[in-house]
Amino acid sequence: MTTHLTHVAAPEGVAPGSGYSHVVWGTGRFVAVSGQCALDADGRVVGEGDPAAQARQVFANLGRCLAAAGAAFDDVVKLTYYVTDVAHLPAVRAARDEVVDTARPPASTAVQVSALFRPELLLEVEAFAVVPEERRLRRPGSGR
């Protein structure tokens, strides 16, 4: 099966990005995942003071949210990173690179913010995905 997404790392006249595509498009069902933070299933912060541990938890949460929509990281077209310190970006990129195809990375934006909704949180990441039409969403409890 050919991919349902097209990645353009460097459109003509635009310098290539490092670790992201400038443009990604596709056909299928659009999925928006709210910003995920380093919270476990009980709402407790994972990795307080540790950007690498928080980033791993964030991407684990994103994976669970994508799966709930019948999507996977291969379907992600855009990631937006909100970090309280840009010095955390290497840890975020390392966690991202464990789950995305680094040869075809999603479009991305990183923003430094003064704070998140809880002071011990260091980052938040939201995702947009496009799932192929032929992949059906299985609704919990519906059997289809």
User: What class do helices, strands and sheet pairing give?
Assistant: alpha+beta
**Residues in helices, as a percent range:** 10-25%
Task: Work out the helix count.
Answer: 2
Please trace the helix and strand order, writing H or E for each element. EEEHEHEE
Q: What strand line-up does the widest sheet have?
A: 3-6-4-5
User: What are the segments in which pLDDT stays under 50 over at least 5 consecutive residues?
Assistant: none
**How many strand elements?**
6
- Assign an overall shape: globular
Structure write-up:
The structure is a single chain. This protein has 144 residues and is α+β, with helices and mostly antiparallel strands. Helices cover 19% and strands 27% of the residues. A four-stranded mixed β-sheet has the order 3-6-4-5. A two-stranded antiparallel sheet has the order 1-2. Helix 2 links the parallel strand 4 (76-83) and strand 5. Helix 1 crosses helix 2 (89-97). The chain is globular. The mean pLDDT is 92.
Architecture blueprint of SSEs:
Layout: E1 5-8, E2 23-26, E3 29-36, H1 51-68, E4 76-83, H2 89-97, E5 107-112, E6 123-131
Provide a brief overview of the structure.
The chain has 144 residues and is α+β, with helices and mostly antiparallel strands. It is 19% helix and 27% strand.
What structural keywords apply?
144 residues; two-stranded antiparallel ribbon; 27% strand; globular; alpha+beta
